[in-house]
Amino acid sequence: MHALVAAIDTPSIAVHLVQPESWPGVRDSLPASARAFAEAHGFAPKPGRYLALPDAEGAIAAVLFGIDPADSRRADPFLAGKLPGLLPEGTYHFATLPPGTAETATLAFLLGAYRFDRYRDKKDGGCRIVLPEGVDGDELARIAEAVMLGRDLVNTPTNDLGPDGIEEAIRALGTRFGAEVRTIVGDELLKQNLPMIHAVGRASAVPPRLVDLTWGAADAPKITLVGKGVAFDTGGLDIKPSSAMLLMKKDMGGAAAAIALAQMIMDARLPVRLRLIVPAVENAISGAAFRPGDILQSRKGITVEIGNTDAEGRLILADALALADEEAPELIVDFATLTGAARVALGPDLPPLFTRDEGLAGDLQRLGLAVNDPLWRLPLWGAYDSMLESKVAQVNNVSSGGFAGAITAALFLQRFVEKATAYAHLDIYAWNPSTKPGRPEGGEVQGARALYAYLRERYGSLG
């Protein structure tokens, strides 16, 4: 069980999550002194409103916390995730909850308690939650632990998490769950026909690599996750301005999301043959850097003209996707912090989903909303494929104009997947620009919980 979850018999303080429709009943259930205290402080059940009610000795007897009304179209299902930042140290339980919200509120509480303190003095104590009746604590702890791992990876700067650090994180996961992990490093990438991963990462002092984890029964349905692992992105010779580099430690956020999802799958013992493929590189600048105008061979044999070295993520993903596709899995999903265009279109909280599989798209959007890990489908609009034409190679790595950048990137990647039964591409941001309930500012795991819910629904569990 997660450290933030307290045993059911632990003494705890009641937290009432109140809506306008439930507030009269909660108010009438309070002792007269508590009702008077709430009235004196003008408490109203507005979203995010917080009030601690004292007992006769001045200690906290209960907590009132306003949440969105049931019919609100702007309701935040994770609003209870604000509580860990408001509550003093102690153990709490939800005494009042709207119907059907116990699991979401508890997960929000756990995710809202996350702190990245690797480089600061760690604080003792904090808030813990007693599980509501009927909530699967092991499942929530599994999800929260994986999300926190992914957040830690994104938040860790590149001097402590380069391509080698990404490999170490995957190896640690493999050791924990008995998975097989193999790595192809440096010039061996050329010998193993992964030339674009080598080209993107060869300028760095830390050699590029491909990390390949496999787990589960060989005859189980094959599910392959691919994560973009650019430990830092200078933009290469098409160098980014300094302001655009400030968050580039998060350019491995796709790898972090894929790693988090892999942990959920293995921890839940889903009956699948899991494969996790992460091309891990640093897009650095040196005399060995690949150049605008270069033409690269890919694993699939497609030649790629380099129109911009800052569109490096799709190059390493292309080789990784081609490798993944060779065994024709039932599903390939890639996670990548790929385009600024995706953020312009949908903002930081709503990653675009690209797939040609109608059933998969519908299920992922439905389940993403159900678990508050939303995805929004954008089209693989074939007419835009001509934007990637090259006069000297089979394809350019960037489009000829400034339009539809997220779509053209997805169309580029689609070329490298043919045999898989289904394929989905998630263009995630992997970062919370500001703190929101359940989502502290900093690294974020996007899309993994939606995919996990889909895999749970489709394949069940080994138990």
Sum this structure up briefly.
With 463 residues, the chain is of the alpha/beta class.
How would you sum up the global shape?
elongated
What's the mean pLDDT score? 96
SS summary, helix count: 14
Strand content: 15-25%
Report the structural category: alpha/beta
Radius of gyration in whole Å, from Cα? 24 Å
Helix content: 25-40%
Low-confidence parts lasting 5 or more residues at pLDDT below 50?
none
**Major β-sheet profile:** 9 strands, mixed
What's the β-strand tally? 20
Ends distance: 16 Å
Describe the secondary-structure layout.
Layout: E1 5-6, E2 13-18, H1 23-29, H2 32-40, E3 50-54, E4 60-66, E5 90-96, H3 102-112, E6 127-130, H4 137-155, H5 163-177, E7 180-185, H6 188-191, H7 195-201, E8 209-215, E9 222-227, E10 229-233, H8 242-245, H9 253-268, E11 273-283, E12 295-297, E13 303-305, H10 313-325, E14 331-336, H11 340-346, E15 352-355, H12 358-370, E16 376-377, E17 395-396, H13 405-414, E18 422-427, E19 431-432, E20 442-443, H14 448-459
Parallel strand pairs: 1-6, 2-4, 2-5, 5-6, 9-11, 9-14, 10-11, 13-17, 14-18, 15-16
Antiparallel strand pairs: 3-4, 7-8, 8-11, 12-13, 15-18, 19-20
Description:
The protein is α/β, with parallel strands linked by helices and 463 residues long. 32% of the residues lie in helices and 21% in strands. The strands form 4 sheets. Strands 7, 8, 9, 10, 11, 14, 15, 16 and 18 form a 9-stranded mixed beta sheet that branches. A 6-stranded mixed beta sheet has the order 1-6-5-2-4-3, with helices on both faces. The longest helix has 19 residues, at 137-155. The chain starts with a strand and ends with a helix.
